[in-house]
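hey team, just a heads up i'm posting the complex here instead of the shared drive bc the drive is being weird again. everything in one block, sequence lines first with there labels, then the predicted structure for the whole assembly after. its two chains so it's a bit long, scroll down
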Amino acid sequence: MGFTSRYYGHPFRVLFSIGKSVAFAHLIWNYGVAWGSGSGASMMPTFPVLGKSVIIDRRCRRGRNVQVGDCVVYNIPIEPGEEGIKRVLGMPGDYVLMNSPDCKNRNHMIQVPEGHCYIMGDNLPWSRDSRDFGPLPLALIKGKVVATSYLNGWNPLKWWSKFDNGLKPVDTTSE
Amino acid sequence: MANHSLWARLRPFRRPLLFNKVALRIQSHPRIHSVNSRWTRYKSFRQHRFLGDFTWYSWIFLTWVPVVVFFNANVMELAFINGPSMYPFMNAEKDQTTAPDVTVAWKWNAQHNLARGMIVLFWNPRKPEITVVKRVVGLEGDIITTRPPYPALVIRVPPGHIWVEGDGGERDSIDSNVYGPIATALVIGTIPFVLKPLHRAGWVRWWEHPVNGRVRHRS
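-- predicted structure starts here --
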């Protein structure tokens, strides 16, 4: 048949096709959608230490369309080459409390500088985040978590769940 | 040729039951010429004077686009230098022409083996969609004497960060003295070669750049 004879006996055609396929996969992985498995206790109620993996929307790289409350994948600025997942607390211009509620300087407040965001893990005592390295440049954001996958059971359709922004309006009625 | 009209060539091909046996029977039929498979019908479509060639070369062009994107993002790209921040090393003729210098940005393993004096390309920490070119002055752990806009006189560069400055000085360059040390993860390339203007074209001999006297202590 024609399709096999196009590649059989043509090593350069085979090599070029493999290279083009790898480049296409790279394009999808870096500019479309990516899958990643995280580990660690810093996002504890949202993500368990092990087992839950995330689907990352790469269109939100460099802080595009990122809002307060989103979980983002970012390059850890104090550890080049490492990536982490944290929740965005403040976008440029927002005023955020710098420290944890149980901290001595809990009332210290800063304005997030231009082009930066303030990120924190959900597990405050076990998270290394903007409280340590300060506001994160938006250019270090690699994508936004849009779905999670958890491999329990044998039905692949039940492995996936949509991941929403957990931000809720403050309840001002009850006091 | 069995398919005489364009509509017949575009018709989706449904392989009937017992295709091979039927095809063998039809091949020996006196009036029906042939039954083509999808690939053979595609080959005959390719022999169309205009449409065949056009679709084929468009497809070949499209398959090379991801390769070019990968190359530009991870191996090498041209960087056009705007503004006076690297004067006089780059845009030395900034008062005679508006043409930007054209340089080569090498992106493969750019964040590794950074050294003082190298010229790096990185994401502007204040404007996340804009890239900047500056010179590396200090690596992590170095103690730097800063220039005026910076609030502190002396700073130690934190882990995973570098201190970058433009050759243009504090008047022309918005650099680490304005926004502080930058994360190494922001670096996307080094500038090893200048292409234009031609009389300054050549390798960037960054190791010959005079050692900045404001690095008080090297880690």
